[in-house]
Amino acid sequence: MSIKDKIADDIKSAMREKRDFERDALRTLSAAIKQVEIDTREKLDDEAILAILQKEIKKRNDARAIYLNGGRLDLAQKEQDEAKLIARYLPAQLSDDELKNELLKIKNELNLNSIKELGALVKTAKERLKASADAKRISEIAKQILG
PANTHER family, alphabetically (predicted)? Predict the structure, then answer.
């Protein structure tokens, strides 16, 4: 079952069980996926949908930070809950140690030694690790390794 189908099934079950928050959050997510399909005029595969999910989680996390700065804890909590809901559809995230090991492997393969080569390390890591680690974590640990 594709991720898109899983989301559609979860929307239906949330509707049946009257879980309004989950239903609304998943509808918003489904709409974001459909919008990209309309814009690109092609049916998205799971890999493309994973990229959209990561983007949506980043949006929620950014909004949460803004709400926290503005003292709106209720809205910040809503954004955090939505991000957790979306994260259910992502593959298991690598732990910090696993991510560090993967980055060290890539660093050694590409023979990178300087912080100036951070971009190459992060780019290659994003391509290989895809949705198993978010870009912010990759960048932070890569800086530690090259720094």
Answer: ALTERED INHERITANCE OF MITOCHONDRIA PROTEIN 41, MITOCHONDRIAL
Task: Render pLDDT for 60-111 as a digit per residue (tens, 0 to 9).
Answer: 999 999 999 999 999 999 999 999 999 999 988 888 889 989 998 998 888 8
CATH class in words for 3-87 = mainly alpha
- Residue whose C-alpha is closest to residue 99's, from 67, 58, 128: 128
Q: Is 110 left (phi over 0), alpha (psi -120 to 50) or beta?
A: alpha
Q: Where are the domains of the chain?
A: 3-87, 96-146
Given pLDDT bands bounded at 50, 70 and 90, which one contains residue 21? Answer: very high
Burial 26-42 (b: 16+ CB within 10 A, else e): beebeebbeebbeeeee
- The residue ranges of DSSP E strands in the chain, in sequence order, are none
Are 39 and 58 a contacting pair, CB within 8 Å? no
